[in-house]
Write a structure and sequence with these properties.
Rossmann fold; 7-stranded mixed beta sheet; 16 helices; 47% helix; binds NADP nicotinamide-adenine-dinucleotide phosphate; Aminoacid_DH-like_N_sf; Glu_DH
Length: 447
Amino acid sequence: MTSTPQTTAYIYQQIVDRNPGEPEFHQALHEVLETLAPVLDKHPRYREEKILERLCEPERQIIFRVPWVDDQGQIQINRGYRVGFNSALGPYKGGLRFHPSVTLGTMKFLAFEQTFKNALTGLPIGSGKGGADFDPKGKSDNEIMRFCQSFMTELYRHIGEITDVPAGDIGVGSREIGYLFGQYKRITNRYESGVLTGKSPNWGGTLIRKKATGYGAVFFAEEMLAANNNSLTDKTCVVSGSGNVAIYAMEKLQASGAKVIACSDSNGVLFDKNGIDVDAVIQVKEVERQRIKAYLEHHPEAEYFENGNIWDIACDVAFPCATQNELKDKDAQTLIDNGCIAVCEGANMPCTEKAVALFHQHKVAFGPGKAANAGGVAASALEMQHNATHSSSYDYSEEHLHEIMINIHRNCCQTAEEFDQPGNYVVGANIAGFRRVADAMLAFGVI
Ligand code: NAP
């Protein structure tokens, strides 16, 4: 029996009906399923063995209470999550997000995307995601520590270096990973370095991990431009967000000869016509833990727009590096009207489906997050390998990360061409990721 786009539409509708009230999960499913009909046509076994239906159902979803005591002595209660989506290629792997917007649906969308992303790296990692509806903003260091300890007091029984290996994401950086690891070690009586990645380099982390997502997105953008006989040199760029991914994307862009003129946070947009001073952003965001507006204290000549829209700033290349659905169709149209030639997603699903359709329609090179931001999880997988050797001196180089991103780009291009959609990185990433996971699932039988 051959597949038609209608059958993937039917599968999509069934999954939506089984997972009501999870719009971001539906969106991520829609974007992927829409591209998979040709691969199901080509390989009927995927359809006969219901690989798609199985792949869209998370293997496990854990929800738990996280009680903690704030600095005023008041008891606070948050909700924690860990979704293990697919372990066909290795232990569940994916970050933890602490943000008030976190729901089970957010976790499922992120873990679903992670399935394809992790497969694309070519490394032995399954997919997962977790977090809590906890808002770290304005919390003291002690409150963050108590929250992390309570969160891990439940999470520890579900994770392990060959079971599930969380890392950071929005609101979870090396400070939080430190508190989480400390509590895991204390409860389990095991110095199990490989249970978390994104660790500090002096206790089991790798130097490249912190920079890997941002650097990787820039390497991917370089490849996209090179495929069109172009380069980042002298290009004007804007990068949304000012967190881990945004900071290191900006650092690598400046090093590659591009000029970054704007970045942001959820309060506003920073514009510096002289080029953003990344060291000042690091000082403001990572050292002082302030809002991006505080950059003006270092560079009074820069401009700050409260509640501004970063996509209104004209640029050659745009890097959405903050959060999901931050770049909508009207923003895409503004970027196109202003002459933007490429968009590369550092964040997960930052562009809406309508925005992506506009980029494709107007021949703007578009790098989807599941390919373009895979450098972070690839570096995490290398950190796991490093931890498994119990070595203190081994580290991975930027060249290694660069090579991985070049391979992901090549794989996306070749797959898109194989399916008659040259230059469509969405098709390339979805099909290449899907095939690797699906083939492993076929080999394992019905489990
Ligand atoms: P982060 O360090 O916490 O920084 C997030 C940045 O995005 C902050 O500047 C934040 O501003 C902004 N932001 C968050 N929610 C927002 C919202 N609703 N509206 C506007 N701005 C918002 O997080 P990150 O690690 O850089 O992650 C950024 C994105 O990259 C996420 O989509 C994440 O899933 C993805 N990603 C991260 C990694 C990684 O290695 N960290 C790997 C792959 C993908 P505020 O401070 O004002 O909230």
